[in-house]
Amino acid sequence: MKQLALLALALFVFAVPARAMSGGGCGGDCASCHSITVQEANTLLKDLAVVKEVKPAAVRGLYELTLEKEGRTGTAYLDYGKKHLIGGQIYDISTRQPVGAPRPAAKAPERVDPSKLKSDHSLLMGNPKGKKKLFVFTDPECPFCAKMHAELQKLVTMEPDLAIYIKMFPLKMHPHAYDKARVILGENSLQLLEKSYAGGSLPAPGPQDGKKAVDDTMRLAESIGINATPTLVLPDGRIAPGFQEAKVIKELLK
Prior knowledge:
By secondary structure, the chain is of the alpha+beta class. The protein has helices at residues 2-13, 38-44, 143-158, 177-187, 190-197, 212-223, 246-252; strands spanning 50-56, 62-69, 72-79, 85-87, 91-92, 97-98, 122-126, 132-138, 162-168, 231-233, 239-241.
């Protein structure tokens, strides 16, 4: 009863209603790709509250904001997409205690058995008969994936013996990415992927755009510890998360 009372008090002290925001949003150590300044937060929350401090929240995908309004100070949470504001305290269900400082993210694996990676459910770039095989886990709405896709286009001209297999790995933080991934794989179309990267709209999935190909890749990524995009898996099984320039990937392939 005491903890429930504390939870109710935390929600009462500074309850901020959900409110639509502007912005965009890719997994893994989210804070390495997403950021917001106090000044930007104050612009977003203009006329709602004064933002005094911003830091990563204990729950991945959220910023923790210290707010001041009418002489009162409280805590609220803003999603990385900068679209929703959540008032109150975050509680750990298992301990019934308020969550404190963010926990360090689990260390991602550095290598995977290359035999676990198959070319099916992939888009192909480069040489179909290439002896070097590079796997790329990508999200069709991830801006960093879009940026690296341009680097991959450069890479295939630098590495004529390279086959690049692009695996659709839509992240939950991008609500439309799953359906886009289905359509892209259903059409086996690099052009549709590039259209999505450019911000274009894709058709809704049809009967030919099954879920299995995308679901299999999502399960594969989870089984080998990949949780962010873009992520490369090199021919020897080394895992390289995050954006990489073509010249850096070329060196990694040596």
